[in-house]
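User: Quick sanity check before I run a bigger batch. Here is a single chain. Can you write out its predicted 3D structure?
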Amino acid sequence: MADLLIPALGGGCLVLVGLGVLVLLVAAVVLYNSFIVKRNRVKTAWAQIDVQLKKRFDLVPNLVETVKGYAKHEKTVFENVTKARSAMLGAKTTKDIAAADNMMSSALKSLFAVAEAYPELKASENFKQLQLDLNDIESKIAYSRQFYNDSVYAYNNAVMQFPGNLFAGIFKFGQEEFFRAEGAERANVKVKFE
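Assistant: Done. Predicted structure follows.
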């Protein structure tokens, strides 16, 4: 009788081991696909920021030219906007793009501060439309940043939490970087007319 029990237990163990392996494989596939979806959401969110930054990048020369017509002596303001546009062109990493974006935001604040000194410019329909377009783009950039950071948050949590962290390491899924405002963008804006 004992001889009959041993093979029966051995077969049961094999079934249990087989089920265990199957459960691990299913878990690995589910986690892997989850990482892919979350990583793609991060990439899509980043692409949306990129689209909005490009729109702003394309709008800025029109805005600068409009202001230049009224404020010919404000050379440094226009130089700063030009530098910010150049920085946007050269930025490749999340950190570089965030820094260039912050530089552009600061330059645009200065540009609008100059525009405040010229009532006839503020009354110009072209300037008003450009300002409305820029405000719309800035709102979309802010929303895109928030969506990107929310996507990074969800992805990083999946990569860092157990048991995902075990599989993330195996599949080489690493954490993503958040989009952060630089110090200049966090500071209060001081507008001074001289």
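The chain has seven helices and no strands.

User: Great, the batch can go ahead then.
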